[in-house]
Structure formats: C-alpha cells, structure tokens
Amino acid sequence: RMRKNIIFGLIAGLVGFGGLASCTDKDVTTTSRFEVRLTDAPADYAKVLVDIQGVEYNVNGTDGGWKSLPLKRTGVYNLLNFRNGVDTILAGEEIAAGKISQIRLKLGHNNSIVLKNGETISLKVPSGAESGLKLNLHAELEAGLAYVLTVDFDAAKSIVEHGNGKYSLKPV
Questions:
Q1: Which residues, listed in sequence order, are joined to residue 136 by a DSSP beta bridge?
Q2: pLDDT tens-digit series, residues 98-132
Q3: Whole-angstrom distance, CA of residue 155 vs CA of residue 14
Q4: Residue 59 pLDDT > 60, yes or no?
Q5: What is the mean pLDDT of the chain?
Q6: What is the b/e burial string over 53-82, where b = at least 16 CB atoms within 10 angstroms of the residue's CB?
Q7: 1 and 23 Cβ atoms separated by less than 8 Å
Q8: CA 55, CA 71: separation in Å to the nearest integer?
Q9: What is the pTM of this model?
Q10: Looking at residues 47-52, what average pLDDT do you find?
Q11: CA–CA gap between residue 41 and residue 9 (Å, rounded)
C-alpha cells in the first residue's frame, strides 16, 4: 500500500506531500487509509492542554457532509509533548476514496495553559466545541493509498494573551 504524508501547519498553512512507498497493480480497492496526527512547535509555557473530543472530515463541502473518524483516545493532550519530530495519532480508519474538503477538531471545555511559574489558566477556544477548529484541506484521496495528515499547532503563535490575564487559542 502506498502512503502519502500531508503536513498541515495551523499557522504556516503549509501542506506537503511525501513518503511514497511501492504498490502493485493487484491492489484493487475503493478505500484509502486516512490518519490524523498531532504535533507542535516549541512554546514558552510549561504545558498547553487541549481537550480533543472528536475529529471529523467533510467529503463534499456541505454541512451535511461531515463524517467522524474514530479517535484513538478522547481527552486532554499536552501539545508540548509533541515537539521536535514527535507526534501522536488522533484518529484514523479506512474511508471511501474521493475528495476531502475540510477536517475539524471538536474540542471540549478543558483547555488550558500552565505558565512556567506553575499557574494554570483556562484557554478560551472560540467555536472549538460548537463548530470545531476547521482546517481547509481540499485533497483528493486515491484508492489504495494511505494518507497521514499531521496537524502542526504552533502554540507560541496560536495562544493569544489578552492583557487582562485571559488567554485564547486562535489557530490560523
């Protein structure tokens, strides 16, 4: 089975392809393996905790086109555990080959940062639980290939301090 890697930087907006392996003509299938992974760049916090409750993909660009990918584990992830080439798999399964227009991460309400002094501060995530953090993908998944989408949070740039002691997560 061939594998394509897709790296999506929330701040940089970079999508790259690579990591192709060999495949034979005997591999006849109508599905693609699709995985979503999580990684991060360094940030000046002790922890950046994001409560991930779901991963969905949109197959036709309409509100009714959202489908869930089974999560490996729901709950709070410390983004800073996934730096310097380390990632974790969030979700994945065999899905029908074809177009994917977006993915979204559905977030819970337990999002926070821990400052270097140990203080924990709640993170507001606009629309995180309602509509999710949406990422435009517009990719065509070919049958018989495996795809890995790596969501690269840049916590240092995605966390906004409001000056009143409040913080929010606003990925681009």
A1: 102
A2: 999 999 999 999 999 999 999 999 998 877 667 78
A3: 16
A4: yes
A5: 81
A6: bbbbbbbeeeeeebeebebeeeeebebbeb
A7: yes
A8: 7
A9: 0.77
A10: 93
A11: 10
Amino acid letter, residue 165: G
Tokens of 1: 């089975």
Let me know if 21 is exposed, middle or buried by CB neighbors in 10 A (0-12, 13-18, 19+). Answer: exposed
Instruction: Annotate the chain with three-state secondary structure.
Output: CEEEEEEEECCCCCEECCCCCCCCCCCCCCEEEEEEEEEECCCCCCEEEEEEEEEEEECCCCHHHEEEECECCCEEEEHHHCCCCCCEEEEEEEEECEEEEEEEEEECCCCEEECCCCCEEEEECCCCCCCCEEEEEEEEECCCEEEEEEEEECHHHHEEECCCCCEEECCC
What lies within 8 Å, CB to CB, of 148 at 6+ separation is 3, 4, 5, 6, 19, 35, 37
Quick check: 36 and 90 in contact, CB under 8 A?
A: yes
Nearest to 29 by CA among 1, 4, 65: 1
Distance in angstroms (rounded) separating the CA atoms of residues 75 and 77: 7
For 110, the token pair is: 């337990």
